[in-house]
Design goal:
single chain, Tachylectin-2, Chain A, mainly beta
Length: 343
């Protein structure tokens, strides 16, 4: 069948271009009561997260959910550290350590760090990917952090990827697969890459460059990732492997991208061991600003953002996100994916 559509800005679309079309629906909701404020407020932290807090991986121990969010104090003090929040219902969160950081940069010997992707288990320890900033070179590195159920007893690997930002690491068959960002180039050319190793601690060998924003092959006109691609994560549900990556479209994508961030789905072909952008379209979209909705969520003026991590618990999929609240200050926000079905 052929469908005719009207393009609002035809000057951006040359004859013969492939154009991506998808419905601008909102498919997530806030957990708990976040109408007057986000899951984690600056006042919940003891002077180390006034500028930025958000994102971060989650895991469950018994009936307790644990969220390893990250925070930054101010513009002149750009040192990320990790806080620990706990909950029994994913709705109300309690900040541990009297609101102070739970894992400090001194503990992992770097100038700043963030944790990304799913938290898994190997040899009795929990693990997740870590973006680690080298205090000497000031370059980003991918490492893996190991810890116990209390998010303590910290250890970590050496450098697994240089000039890079971490994404996620899981075991597929007998090999460990990693998605990460090569950040050695300008923003539109930063590439999401896949690598694998026989051991979780590496060495990791690249096997695919998946996508970058200016990619003429994988970025047709009108898609919501043609300005930036980042924050890749990798997940497994009952043997089904998929990935997510953060995306930002050019401002002219009225009603869908609008300069805001989305999260797009990556398919994994287990036979060919290759990744591709799913034709299903974005899995998490933000086509409007929450503060315009019926006078609620006035604190959420801009986008679901950086550091998004997922926790699948039974029939629910939760996403730890980052929302702009005002004057480029960002807040940790827990959301839940609607209509999630675990196959």
């Amino acid at each position: 069948a052929t469908t005719e559509v009207t393009v609002s800005h035809p000057e951006y679309f040359a004859v013969g271009n492939t154009v991506a079309l998808f419905n601008p629906f909102l498919n997530y909701e806030f957990t708990g009561n976040q109408t007057s404020g986000p899951s984690i407020e600056p006042g919940d932290l003891s002077g180390w997260g006034q500028l930025y807090c958000g994102g971060g991986p989650m895991f469950k121990v018994g009936s307790t959910y644990k969220w390893l969010f990250y925070a930054i104090a101010n513009e002149t003090y750009k040192y990320g550290q990790i806080g620990l929040a706990t909950s029994t219902d994913m709705a109300t969160w309690t900040i541990q350590n009297s609101g102070g950081p739970w894992i400090t940069r001194e503990q992992v010997d770097c100038s700043s760090f963030t944790l990304t992707g799913d938290i898994g288990m190997v040899d009795g320890s929990y693990y997740c990917a870590m973006s680690w900033n080298n205090p000497t070179s000031n370059k980003g590195e991918v490492r893996i952090l190991f810890f116990d159920e209390d998010a303590s007893s910290i250890s970590y690997t050496g450098m697994l990827k240089d000039n890079a930002a971490s994404g996620g690491v899981i075991k597929i068959g007998s090999e460990w697969h990693m998605l990460y960002m090569d950040i050695s180039t300008a923003l539109q050319y930063r590439t999401i890459k896949a690598a694998k190793a026989n051991n979780i601690e590496g060495p990791y060998t690249d096997y695919q460059s998946i996508v970058y924003a200016a990619d003429p092959v994988n970025t047709p006109a009108g898609v919501c990732w043609n300005l930036a691609c980042d924050s890749p994560t990798i997940h497994s549900i009952n043997g089904y492997i998929f990935g997510l990556f953060g995306a930002k479209g050019n401002d002219y994508l009225s009603g869908v991208g609008s300069g805001n961030r989305q999260h797009c789905l990556l398919d994994f072909d287990s036979d060919t061991q290759t990744w591709s952008i799913s034709t299903k379209g974005p899995v998490l979209m933000n086509p409007l600003q929450w503060n315009t909705v019926a006078g609620t969520y006035l604190w959420a003026i801009d986008h679901d953002g950086q550091g998004q991590c997922m926790l699948i618990d039974g029939s629910s999929a939760f996403l730890a996100n980052t929302f702009n609240s005002s004057s480029d200050t960002y807040r940790a926000t827990m959301t839940k994916l609607k209509n999630f079905v675990q196959s």
